[in-house]
Amino acid sequence: MTFARREYHERAARTRERMRERAIDVLVVTEPASMHYLTGYDGWSFYTPQGVVVAADGELLLFTRQMDANGARLTSWLGDEQILGFPEELVQQRDRHPMQWAGAELIRRGLAGGVVALEMDSYFLSPRAYEALCASLPGTRIVDSEELVGWVRAVKSPAELELMSRAARIMERVMRVAIDAVEPGVRQCDAVAAIMAAQASGTPEAGGDYPAIVPMLPTGVGTSAPHMTWSDAPFRAGEATVLELAACHRRYHCPLARTVFLGDPPAKLTTIAAVVEEGLEAALAAVRPGATCESVEAAWRALIGRHGLEKSSRIGYSVGLGYPPDWGEHTMSLRPGDTTPLEAGMAFHMILGMWMDDWGFELSETFRVTERGAECLCSVPRGLTVKR
Questions:
Q1: Domains of the chain listed by start with CATH number
Q2: What pTM, to 2 d.p., does this model score?
Q3: Which end of the chain has the least Cβ crowding within 10 Å, N or C?
Q4: CB neighbours of 331 closer than 8 A, spacing ≥ 6?
């Protein structure tokens, strides 16, 4: 168990408060990050249906594959009677589904017949799982939870922020290793091996976990596109490489992006690097409790606009606890139209990627919102890293 039992109880209480506001009787949580948030359960079992059931009244229930039930007992704060394992005969069958079993359990425990909310946009609730659960709950109104637990997670506790700070110390080491590994003739896959080793080993004070996203390091013309990973091709002089990485400690993340150039960089790259860094500073300066997500983005947009640049995609999102395939929390975004007010204790990954026709540049920071403004978690030089 990562946190004190009292913190888990407080999280459940805040979740139930939001449920009452929306007249939800039962919430079924299938996002592994939100399951972990509520119970502490940590296992690679999310490739099969599983979930946490939060009733407006009563104890939490966790259901998972029977062989994974003991993992829940080992890692969560729940009692044995709160952990339910569905039979092996239901795993990946065409004529039956674990969600039918879950629905029957809800009926047996008197939790059906009212309003049941599901995470409709979860990666981990397939159309077939949804249909199976709906069919097993006649007379029950099924609604979208609309990332309810994600919004509860938005403001981090001091204990959560401490884990993110430890991840940041790991991230500083990971980025140093990554920059050192980018050399002419070195295969990209060998650089990634060094990066992953640093992610896993962490620091003497805090070991690393597997991040929710693999290392991304587009190189050469690949820097014109986000979310590229690696190949076995060597790095070449005269090319840039983007390093978009993360460190993770006890499932809490600190992402960071930097750009490296081997040789003498072209003027267009050094120019945009300077503008992006200036824009980052302007956006961070706009962060304060009460400011909106869109006002932070507006500060960035105004700055780069003076240089004749524009960026259509969002520049950041809420971040913290995460499981594959994403470390983002799917709630707040730093973009026009998001009027969510910032609060002390929130954390964001501000990612400023500029992707051109055949080249690009990335720079990012993970920051927490404090009463004084933005506090970046990492201390890594921001400018374009030039290796001659």
A1: 5-152 (3.40.350.10), 158-387 (3.90.230.10)
A2: 0.96
A3: C
A4: 147, 150, 151, 153, 154, 317, 318, 340
